[in-house]
Amino acid sequence: MSGLLQLIGYPDMIAIMSSPLHEFFAALPSRSQQYAAGQFLFHRDDSIEAIFWIERGIVHLQRCSSDGTAAVMQRAIAGSLLAEASVFSHHYHCDAVAVDAVNAKRIAMSDVHRAMCENPEFTAALAAHLAQEVMRLRSRSEIMALKTVAARLDAWLAFHDNQLPPRGKRVEFAREIGVSPEALYRELARRRVKDVP
């Protein structure tokens, strides 16, 4: 169970990909499927028959308002579980659309439910993952309420021991805190200049 404790902190994609949860899902029967950019994995109000583990690409879980504006509820990237709350629902509450070319493992929900009944460790790993997602969403909600790039960056760093993501992940990081990559780079450059004696 000590490995499950590692799931409680803020999610890091490498940690998720090597987590007990990933190992449990990898052991379940699945079917790999490919989706082109713009293709839907499922639609809002569809009956839930499967859950998806994203292996490559990006999928947006989104809801459209009455004026047609799409709000992104989840940005699922490689190594993440798409719409994990669907494990406890009968119908999807959002649309899932591939942002680019996507490879996903489609796992029948009946197999997930069976594994939850038969394997308490799987259920504990899933519960830990869901708790982690709640923490991530709460911290992101606090960050998104801030007005400036500097304030959002400061808040994100406070949640992450003052460690920036690696350079190759900066565009994704900018999206995570709701700013443009250009605005993030300007703020980082301003801080570098400020730190030069």
Overall, the morphology is globular
Number of structural units classed as domains: 2
Radius of gyration: 18 Å
Main sheet properties: 4 strands, antiparallel
Order of helices and strands: HHHEEEEEEEEHHHHH
Helix content: 40-55%
- What is the second-level CATH architecture of the largest domain? Sandwich
Mean pLDDT: 83
Strand order of the largest sheet: 1-8-3-6
* Spans where pLDDT lies below 50 across 5 or more residues: 1-18
Number of strands: 8
Structural class: alpha+beta
Number of helices: 8
The CATH class of the largest domain turns out to be: Mainly Beta
CATH topology grouping of the largest domain: Jelly Rolls
Note the beta-strand portion. Answer: 15-25%
